Amino acid sequence: MLKKTEKGYWILEKFASQEGLIHGFSTRKFGNLRARKSLAENKNIGRFLKIFNLEKRDLTLMEQIHGDKIKVVAEDDKEEIIPGIDGMICFQKGIILGVKVADCLPILFYDKEKKVIGIAHAGWKGTLKKIGPSIVKKMKLLGSKPKNIFVGIGPHIGDCCYTVSKKRADKFEKEFGNLKGMICEDCEGIHLDLTVPTIVQLIKVGIPRANIDFGLNCTSCQIDEFFSFRREKGSNGALLGVIGLV
Q1: How many structural domains does the chain have?
Q2: Does the first or last residue of the chain, that is N or C, have fewer Cβ atoms within 10 Å of its Cβ?
Q3: Is residue 83 included in any domain, yes or no?
Q4: Hey, is 206 helix, strand or coil?
Q5: 186, β-bridge pairs
Q6: Cα 89 to Cα 223: distance, rounded to the nearest angstrom
Q7: Mean of the pLDDT values across residues 136-141?
Q8: 60: domain range?
Q9: Do the strands 59-62 and 96-101 form a parallel or antiparallel pair, or are they unpaired?
Q10: Longest dimension (CA), the chain
Q11: Nearest to 245 by CA among 30, 96, 125
Q12: What pLDDT digit, counting tens, does each position of 42-85 carry?
């Protein structure tokens, strides 16, 4: 489950107990942490990282184009925003992976045996393209076993606020079938819960259900706590999710 720390950021309980691993999700308290072209354009990023005794030069971000491309990052990628990708994997200490979201799913990965970390940005397009399972498959190529991988989903828009068109709902039913809880309809419209297909996808590639951690923190409902692209009608604000080996 997600838990708020005394310093004002959120953590996942399954990840918090892992020695040598840092992770967390920012809130509005730390300001808008979005950066598009360069980390230098956003001073708030450095302020947030100082909580972990880290600097901007330790961080690597992604362009995030709602795709399924993944990169294994190394020392040369530090302090960069890597173009054209929505997922990263790393097995080196001192490199912090970051994902910017304001409703989409920020997904973290950690292999406790091989000490490999991963991160993914998953909106509805990325979920359909199976970005989560793609990270797991790439980690397997680096020697990871799915049974040893923890996966955590950070704050994102919940089905309570995420209404979609019938066309989009049909795409999900065509791809995943009639998954319980994925789609429901009421007087407000058709609601889509992106965590349902995400968890099913991960289990299909071997991640034990007990290794998957997530919370019910809706970015749209908790607008005082998080940024929400949908609730704020296209606002540029974003929270930052990070993971790293230290």
Answers
A1: 1
A2: N
A3: yes
A4: coil
A5: 189
A6: 30
A7: 96
A8: 2-157+194-245
A9: parallel
A10: 51
A11: 96
A12: 999 999 999 999 999 999 999 999 999 999 999 999 999 999 99
* Amino acid, single-letter form, for residue 211: N
How many residues are listed for the chain in this entry?
A: 246
User: Is this structure's pTM higher than 0.70?
Assistant: yes
Q: Is residue 107 part of a domain?
A: yes
Task: For residue 169, give the 3-state DSSP assignment.
Answer: helix
202-220 tens-digit pLDDT: 999 999 999 999 988 999 9
Distance from C-alpha of 53 to C-alpha of 10, rounded to nearest angstrom: 17
Contact 102, 157 (CB under 8 A): no
Beta-bridge mates of residue 152: 108, 213
Looking at the chain, the whole-number percentage of residues with pLDDT higher than 90 is: 96
Please say whether the beta carbons of 220 and 231 come within 8 A: yes
Say which residue the tokens 């920020």 belong to.
106
Residue 111 lies in a domain: yes
The encoded tokens of residue 161 equal 């606020």
Spatial distance between the Cα atoms of 184 and 160, rounded to a whole number of angstroms: 10
Closest among 73, 74, 22 to 48, alpha carbons compared: 22
Question: Does residue 188 fall inside a structural domain?
Answer: no
Euclidean distance between CA atoms 198 and 205, whole angstroms: 11
State what percent of residues in the chain have pLDDT above 70: 100
Contacts of 148 by beta carbon, 8 Å cutoff, 6+ apart: 111, 112, 113, 114
The residue behind tokens 């809880």 is 181
- Asked whether the beta carbons of 227 and 32 are under 8 A apart, the reply is yes
As given in the structure block, the two tokens for residue 112 are: 């406790």
Q: Which of 153, 194, 198 is nearest to 15 (CA)?
A: 153
CATH (domain of 205): 3.60.140.10
